[in-house]
């Protein structure tokens, strides 16, 4: 850890998660606090990156879930014939 000032916080963890952290710390030889700091940094960095609606749709699994439809349904103008017109 660097020489910069740090703040102390208290976090309550379920027993099972605490045990997993302690076991991992023992195996790797890493300090538990440093492991929590790294995990929190990774989580916050991951959440802060901008993702498009398409990226979110891919991650959620909704892209490609409709079967037996044309692959270009949302981009090919021929599929839009009559779309938005009053009947």
Brief account:
By secondary structure, the protein is an all-alpha fold.
Keyphrases for this structure?
mainly alpha; elongated; 3 helices
How would you explain this protein's 3D organization?
With 87 residues, the protein is mainly α. It is 45% helix and 0% strand. It has three helices and no strands. The chain has helices at 15-28, 32-48, 53-60. The radius of gyration is 24 Å and the shape is elongated.
Low-confidence stretches: none
Distance between the termini: 69 Å
Which class best fits the helix and strand makeup?
A: mainly alpha
Count of runs of 4 or more consecutive helical residues = 3
Note the main sheet. Answer: none
* Overall 3D shape: elongated
Number of strands: 0
Percent helix? 40-55%
* Overall average residue pLDDT: 85
The portion of residues forming beta strands comes to under 5%
Q: What is Rg?
A: 24 Å
What is the H-and-E element order? HHH
Secondary-structure blueprint:
Elements: H1 15-28, H2 32-48, H3 53-60
